Amino acid sequence: xxxxxxxxxxxxxxxxxxxxxxxxxxxALKQAGVGSLKGLCPFHDEKSPSFHVRPMQGHWHCFGCGxxxxxxxxxxxxxxxxxxDAVEYLAGRAGVTLRYESGGARGPSDGGGGRKRxxxxxxxxxxxxxxxxxxxxxxxxxxxxxxxxxxxxxxAQFGVGYAPKGWxxxxxxxxxxxxxxxxxxxxxLVSRGQSASGQSARLYxxxxxxxxxxxRAVTGEVIGFGARKLYEDDEGPKYLNTPETAxxxxxQVLYGLDLAKKxxxxxxxxxxxxxxxxxxxxHLSGVTTAVATCGxxxxxxxxxxxxxxxxxxxxxxxxxxxxxGEVVFTFDADDAGQNAALKAFQLDATFLSQxxxxxxxxxxxxxxxxxxxxxxxxxxxxxxxxPLYEFVIKSALAGxxxxxxxxxxxxLRAAAPIVAGIRDAAIGPEYARRxxxxxxxxPAEVMRAVTAAAKAGRGAAxxxxxxxxxxxxxxxxxxxxxxxxPVVRAERLALEVLLQMPEKVEPAWAAGIGPxxxxxxxxxxxxxxxxxAGGIASAGKDWANRVADExxxxxxxxxxxxxxxxxxxxRPSEMGRYVRSVLSRVQDxxxxxxxxxxxxxxxxxxxxxxxxxxxxxxxxxLEGERRTHRxx
Length: 632
Fold this sequence. Notes:
This protein is of the alpha+beta class.
């Protein structure tokens, strides 16, 4: 193996590797005084830039987390590389030929060039797939591309290739290029089967008989692949991606980011689409800031990557309409697309930019829209975007009959917490005024509901189910509930009981706890998670994990917190009584709140008007239920 790298060559790499350009591939930088640039730190989460770069000195430092160093240290930290691998990567970019001293051979402790070999394997594989696209066998793949409006030039621009049907075609090709089986297996390009006895069997190509897209890091290096099924006898999923490897982390990877990064940084806009062909369609139509996730939903790590490229800080305007940039999501018009938009709403606070939704005419995605109406239609789709807040609010209204007073009141209850959760204090009141117009209600009445929702949820945007009327709707989360609020405290204790002591909860009492019991959206979401996990009757040793899985990654920490929170009552003989008292308290608060809501509705309707008698009957029933409850 090669020895240690010559010191003079390391110095040459430091001098010739462009620190500013390398950092800009991951972070949007702006001037911060003479000879200094700043941006959002890529190594810790922040909303105001504390990451500074001084290109002339070849150094960077973050005053938030304390990280700093030269260009080699940046690559080591950003890409998780050992020193030698980082130097080799930078030398390749800077055109520096490295010399290795005799002796002191590199071993596993300093990397062994493992990452470099993986990247090289991906490069060779990408070239192989491209070469196979012109073979007779690949005609089905070429027809697929042509049928979606992509010719030879488009395929070449995006590096689209074809994986032959053979079980070891790529494997044999890589072996012929000098790659070892451990290197090929580590790259994720092959899989290992199992024999009938359960023992590991030989390797075989992961991608077979599929169209293949290279997935590149922001630096342009191929780190993985996405493959689309072409043949009916292929029993695999429609899309198959590279598995998690040392290079490929699906929660952080965005397809097309290498192509879009410069325009994202310069225009302060990014368009998030749903697939590889949608990215191609957008870029070919002039929407050159389009990216897509790879085999997973858009998540918090993706948001962080984009935020650093969009740049800016909380008080600085950018070029897009005076805002701090735009994130535009394109979704299908069906329920799945709406759910995806609601999940994006959960992440809204992660961005410093304004967030929008663009839904194509007739529900067409960018690829189909381009095929039907041409390039101009794709650009028009993005320009016709609507604010994400408006989209989510109208989704909440759509689940109610706005022709009836009851429907309008229910819609107000569903939408008010969304408006209360809008993080921009200047925009919130405007949406409250718009909401009053959409509902046909007095602005003052809507503002009171929004203010009450803000106090009840302390800025939470909306709870599961109330957004869209469906129990599987995601929960937008902003600021957590106020632990000093006695209602919040009672609801929290009830969840602690349900999660920690399900065996102590009598079925009759569990039946009295429903979504209407809770005012805090996060707590309603946890209750939905309990139900989705099978309810307390199915609680077992993996109870907490099942509930955490159901509520999703944003609320999983809350479930963990509720599970481990100390219970005020520590006497086993009194535990049953404690559980009963906690659940009784939260049910009583819920009934009292509902009684107050009905009385308020009766006052608004007025005695003798339609609907008054129905509300009065509901009031009598609720008061009877509360009286019975208190007597038990």
